[in-house]
């Protein structure tokens, strides 16, 4: 359902749903991909930034003259050299009036470590870096506002705002206080998400050219059309004067969803100099000044009746926003706030989600963007509730999961999964995990002295709103060009979109060439965000292909409805159509009727070495419902990648600041990305395919799924393993150090007294 079956197909198998290898891979794997860093136009100049060395303070003195005097330095920009610095726009999904803004280059006050203070453009990157070194910057440091809990009472990070509360979302349904008061079992939790770096393989990069009154920005953007519109507005140019090209992009994960001040400054420098200017961020520069993710504090209470039915949920999220707000900066707080009660039937719900300004680098969306925060809180509460009730965790979930016929079921925020079959997804995952046998095996190992645990998580994943556009053009050689308004950062989008088009057009997949990422030759689009590209973008491609089919049929029928010369046996002869109507094209902007929501269920088995605190994920069983799957190879790859990043959050990643606001995990030597050895020893994925009722393709998202399900399942498993040893609370990342400390403290306190113990490690 949801998919228009193409009856005009010949013998060729329908490409929809086939595990075709990614057409992008040969160029990516053989060094032929073209990234911004590979582009060096004639006369190209190189850029480097001077950045704030303190988290908060004042510029006491700033003298750029020594840099300007250096050989090879072509331009130095400080705030004094800019007549206007209009703030970068913020997505108004949550009211954005109070969101912190900052000038592109610091003007007097310093608000975060890494904040751009000056731009140096030179003949070589070495000369640009020498220029940065030569600038005399004196600062008066002040105590920074780092912690979101104290930020609300602290001095304003943005002097133009009265306080640090930047955005808030509150809603309720039912009488939560009465339901919690009456509930025989109430559990309460406070959780801390580590602050994370999206850390795509390719760091940020921008190259700007100003030619004949047109600015071209090469930049790996998740939303090139949006970047184009914003850049034009910020620089006072007409939209037609700006072209944004996102060539091959080596991952983004939300970090490239919003324009940065650096991008705007590079464009401005190219315009002033009349020469191409290139900036390629280093890893340390990205860890310091590209958007971060997570970092939220979550508190919640959940009340149950004696049968394990959830009576009430109270959820409170507090997000540290940083010193300026990227376009998508408020989205995690908004997503976390609108998702509860997730997949469950809960009559009384009260949610508050707040974001506060802090003297830290900016917060943005990161793979999951609020979904992992919501899922972690809900799934930890359900697990604690099950333990208190003495009912198996999967049974508590089974009793509360919404049934297919109960969907959609809008919550007090108006959000709801479109459709889904959660009970079937749970049943299938449980069957794959064979819990009775697994529990028996774990009991034997525990009896033999091993520290092992089992945990699960069930979650829903909203997959994006709005529209996307596609244009399909029939060429003289009866091949097709598909121009897509969204973008791609290595997900295999070109392969998947070609499959959708070929499915609808009844042509070989190889006959569909896909263009994306260049605003000059694609219809306007939103971009690769929020797991939306297949559900929304794929539906737009399907709609454009169907429109082209309709036009071809009309042409084949001829002006007087003659016998369809070009549809022998009901199959469109595209060569004939190409001859009759050269350049036949269809462009469709398509907005699905509703938002598609994916879902997933993850079961994790862990073993902990109590002598060292090292946790190993022995096994993970992960089943997901992405609706109609266009390419199972790509869907599984997305799931694996999301699981890897989810395990990064669960086990090892954390950006940490010291009390002065210095980043003490500012390189990949200190910021621990997951490695192959951190993956589950055995990973068994599976899926059910409940077609989404929200869009014509029937697809749901899967790009962020693994990041949502893996962390709560692993944390629940770790608690299952450690609780018998007296550990009552743990926050991610579950590093050996943190687990060892918790075990040592539990041993010291005695099992009973360890309740409520915190490791006290900053995150
Ligand atoms: S975190 Mo995503 O790129 O919407």
Strand arrangement in the largest pleated sheet: 3-5-1-13-10-11-12
The low-pLDDT segments are 1-11, 751-763
Q: Name the CATH homologous superfamily of the largest domain.
A: Aldehyde oxidase/xanthine dehydrogenase, molybdopterin binding domain
Task: Report, as a whole number of angstroms, the end-to-end distance.
Answer: 47 Å
Q: Output the number of helix runs.
A: 19
Based on secondary structure, the structural category is alpha+beta
User: What is the oligomer described by this structure?
Assistant: single chain
Return Rg in Å: 27 Å
Q: Give the averaged pLDDT, no decimals.
A: 94
- CATH hierarchy: architecture of the largest domain: 2-Layer Sandwich
The description of the largest β-sheet is: 7 strands, mixed
What would your notes on this structure say?
By secondary structure, this protein is α+β, with helices and mostly antiparallel strands. The chain folds into three domains: 7-33 and 465-590, Aldehyde oxidase/xanthine dehydrogenase, molybdopterin binding domain (Aldehyde Oxidoreductase, domain 4, 2-Layer Sandwich); 37-144 and 199-289, Aldehyde Oxidoreductase, domain 4; 401-407 and 418-463 and 595-763, Aldehyde Oxidoreductase, domain 4, CATH 3.30.365.10. 29% of the residues lie in helices and 23% in strands. The chain is built from 19 helices and 25 strands. A seven-stranded mixed beta sheet has the order 3-5-1-13-10-11-12, with helices on both faces. Helix 9 (331-338) runs parallel beside helix 10 (371-389) and helix 14 (493-505) runs parallel beside helix 15. The longest helix has 25 residues, at 533-557. It starts with 24 loop residues before the first helix and ends in a 14-residue tail after the last helix. Mean pLDDT is 94; it is low at 1-11 and 751-763. Bound molecules: dioxosulfidomolybdenum(VI) ion (SMO). The site of dioxosulfidomolybdenum(VI) ion has 10 residues, from loops.
